[in-house]
Amino acid sequence: MDIIEETKRNRLLDIRRIEFGDNLIEITSALSIILTLYENDDDAEIIGACKLKVTEGIQLLEKIGAVIEASKYKIP
Amino acid sequence: MLSHLVYVSVRNASCSAEEIEKILASCKKNNGSLDITGVLLHSATHFVQYLEGDYKQIISLYDKIKSDTRHKNVVLISGAPIKSRLFPSWQMGSKKVESEDIQYGTDMNQTEVSEFKAILGGKGQEGSKAIQLIKKFFK
Fold first, then answer.
1. Does A33 touch chain B (CB under 8 A)?
2. What's the average model confidence in pLDDT over B83-89?
3. What is the mean pLDDT of residues B54-70?
4. Cα–Cα distance between B85 and B103 in angstroms, integer?
5. Angle at CA B59, nearest 5°, toward B55 and B65?
6. How many Å apart are CA B119 and CA A28, to the nearest integer?
7. Which of B10, B77, B81 sits opposite A30 (nearest CB)?
8. Angle A24-40/A44-63 helices, nearest 10 degrees?
9. Least CB-CB distance to B73: which of A3, A10, A18?
10. What stretch of H or E contains B79?
11. Virtual torsion, Cα A53, A54, A60, A63, nearest 10 deg
12. Residues 6 or more apart from B41 whose CB is under 8 A from it?
């Protein structure tokens, strides 16, 4: 496996391991990382993993009542 | 093989300014012997670190960094071979990125400071698209 491939594999694992925590700051801090990757990465697998995580983060925001904040992270 | 690596992470609330000083002191102490150079950017909520050196050394360091309790949700955003170092004299430069008034906490020369500012300002860097992303984490 070359460096580029290994980096992609590590990035994918890192994204899947993200834990949001249970408060607004922790959730939005993690979401900002995922969303930036989602908007800038051009690998379909990475984008797919980000999309899943963003959805998870939005659901957590809604669960704690941060509905307006959650709406800022909606992705197509 | 000479390579670079960039990761972003979420700073734990308990990680104080003193803790960041300890991180930088540790980098300066240890990175020299490993021939690793780079820069650490930090805001109230995030870290972004750029490392360059032998790939085996920097990926091994990355594995250690991931287990540091001063941050979490560490995500590798870039890793690739490079032709030459961007920051050859930085054992670990640092910048608090929330204020333009804060000085760089490192020993780099004025040319390197200018180079780094140019990178953060969007200057193209061969083989390192991720560097352009760094500033986006701090918008």
1. yes
2. 81
3. 94
4. 22
5. 145
6. 26
7. B10
8. 160
9. A18
10. strand B71-81
11. -140
12. B47, B48, B49, B94, B95, B96, B97, B134, B138
Predicted-complex ipTM score: 0.88
pLDDT values of chain A reduced to their tens digit, one per residue, 76 residues: 798 899 999 999 999 999 998 899 889 989 988 887 887 788 999 999 999 999 999 999 999 999 999 998 888 7
Token pair, residue B20, equals 């960041």
For residue B57, the SS3 value is helix
Q: Do the chains contact at A3 and B136, CB–CB below 8 Å?
A: no
Token pair listed for B106: 């490192």
Q: Which two tokens stand for residue B112?
A: 């390197």
Per-residue pLDDT tens digits for B98-110: 533 333 334 445 6
Q: Running DSSP on this structure, what letter comes out for residue A19?
A: -
Burial track B120-132 (b if 16+ CB lie within 10 A, e otherwise): beeeebeebbbbb
CA atoms of B135 and B139, how far apart (whole Å): 7
**pTM listed for this prediction:** 0.79
d(CA B16, CA B55): 30
Rounded CA gap, A20 and B100, in Å?
30
